[in-house]
């Protein structure tokens, strides 16, 4: 039996040691879910992925995603980072499509040789619960006046759910933190993956929004780049005409407060009551090794 190889990449990064870290294990079919969970905790990144085999199954590659705490049916930066490894290490083809068989179904990642950006088409969004500014302000340690009341506070899912919280300024973003005790008490057994706060003020003028994502996981209280959450954001922006129209094509900065600056590209459009969501970013290889 060949010992599984593993790779470390930075996703949604413009340079090394930025973006969101990911460990990817290859030929991992021999590993039990219990061992996968232990390895995810050992790596201790926000997520670790496991590619079952170098061979396709049902038109795609079977992939499982684990946080240090639990398995997820979908997550954004693990999808892009794993697709990068499949393209460069397994397919040896840096062009065309890669399909990943995940818990939410098959997700397609595209890219070509002319661009370093990979794009994933996410599942059609579902719009769930709405909340009041009082609910969120107390949980985030900010005032109700920091929240932009022109837009709703809304839970959105493209496979896993996040709550979109529109804020007014970078100061409001910087003052935010998640009180996990209040979060757990408020949501009980119906917890979303986390809260995504965003505002139109940015650190870099070429970007459109500044984002932070706070998660429900004690081991990963804040995420430096969240593809799934930003997919929910892209859908929310289109639905509520945040930029004045139903079409969104923007750059989002995240992770700056953590010292892991990240850049995500969001594209979405609402047509005939349906919203298509695509999230893009770059992947940078950092290291590789082999299990003992």
What can you tell me about this protein's structure?
This protein has 292 residues and is α+β, with helices and mostly antiparallel strands. It has two domains: 5-122 and 282-290, Diaminopimelate Epimerase, Chain A, domain 1 (Roll); 126-280, Diaminopimelate Epimerase, Chain A, domain 1, CATH 3.10.310.10. It is 21% helix and 38% strand. It is built from six helices and 17 strands. An eight-stranded mixed barrel has the order 1-2-3-4-6-7-8-17. The model has no long low-confidence stretch (mean pLDDT 94).
Can you tag this structure with a few keywords?
globular, alpha+beta, 292 residues, Diaminopimelate Epimerase, Chain A, domain 1, 2 domains, 6 helices
Let me know the average pLDDT. 94
CATH fold title of the largest domain? Diaminopimelate Epimerase, Chain A, domain 1
CATH-defined superfamily of the largest domain: Diaminopimelate Epimerase, Chain A, domain 1
CATH architecture of the largest domain: Roll
The geometry reads as globular
- Helix and strand composition category: alpha+beta
Strand content: 35-45%
State the order of secondary-structure elements, H for helix, E for strand: EEHEEEHEEEEHEEHHEEEHEEE
**Sheet of most strands:** 8 strands, mixed, barrel
Query: Number of helical segments?
Result: 6
Give the number of DSSP strands: 17
Q: What is the radius of gyration computed over CA atoms, rounded to a whole number of angstroms?
A: 18 Å
Major sheet: order of its strands?
A: 1-2-3-4-6-7-8-17
Share of residues in helices: 10-25%
Provide the low-confidence segments as ranges. Answer: none
For the termini, the CA-CA separation is 12 Å
Level-1 CATH class name of the largest domain: Alpha Beta
